[in-house]
Amino acid sequence: MSAYHLQLGIYTALKDDAALSALIVGVYDNPTQAGDPADDSLFPFVTISDGTSQPWDTDTERGNECVAQIHVWSRASHSLEAKQIQDAIDDVLHRGTIAIAGSVFIGSDYITQTVQRDPDGITRHGVQEFKIIYEEA
């Protein structure tokens, strides 16, 4: 089962969504760091975390149940921007379809969502988790 193909599928689904793209600068695995910590030009953006994975096998099929973490980073003075972006992500991933090469996508469901102030005092950090189930093609 390919964690690489799963992350690529999530990335593509998020990057290709016009409503989400209108709200953010980009979707990243490892975003570029600004030389000046006060530079807000790279915000807001989304990152895809490693998440967790466990077997979801049957007697005849090999599968995976994964929990993917999606992070929202915002420099707005309030949490509304991060929550609006999370709503757009939810529209894409909750009960949406993710193309995973070499696999048959079974489903994706929202699990949790939080937004909090980052320790730097100016960044809002939102975290969402989605359960994604797929099996080998």
What tags apply to this protein structure?
alpha+beta; STM4215-like; 137 residues; 3 helices; 6 strands; elongated
Number of helices: 3
Helical content stands at: 10-25%
Runs in which pLDDT lies below 50 for 5 or more consecutive residues are none
The CATH architecture can be given as: 2-Layer Sandwich
Task: Output the radius of gyration.
Answer: 16 Å
> What's the count of strands?
6
Gap from first CA to last CA: 10 Å
Order of helices and strands: HHEEEEHEE
Task: Give the overall pLDDT as a whole number.
Answer: 93
Shape designation: elongated
Strand content: 35-45%
What's the CATH class label? Alpha Beta
Write down the domain tally: 1
Biggest sheet: strands, sense, closure? Answer: 6 strands, mixed
Structural class: alpha+beta
In CATH, the topology is named STM4215-like
Oligomer: single chain
Describe this protein's structure.
The chain is an alpha+beta fold and 137 residues long. It has one domain: STM4215-like (2-Layer Sandwich). 23% of the residues lie in helices and 37% in strands. The chain has three helices and six strands; from the N terminus they run H-H-E-E-E-E-H-E-E. It has helices at residues 3-15, 18-21, 80-93, and strands spanning 26-28, 45-48, 52-55, 63-74, 103-117, 124-136. Strands 1, 2, 3, 4, 5 and 6 form a six-stranded mixed β-sheet that branches. A hairpin with a 7-residue loop joins strand 3 and strand 4 (63-74). The chain is elongated and about 55 Å long. The N and C termini lie close together (10 Å). The mean pLDDT is 93.
How does the SSE layout of this entry go?
Elements: H1 3-15, H2 18-21, E1 26-28, E2 45-48, E3 52-55, E4 63-74, H3 80-93, E5 103-117, E6 124-136
Parallel strand pairs: 1-2
Antiparallel strand pairs: 2-4, 3-4, 4-6, 5-6
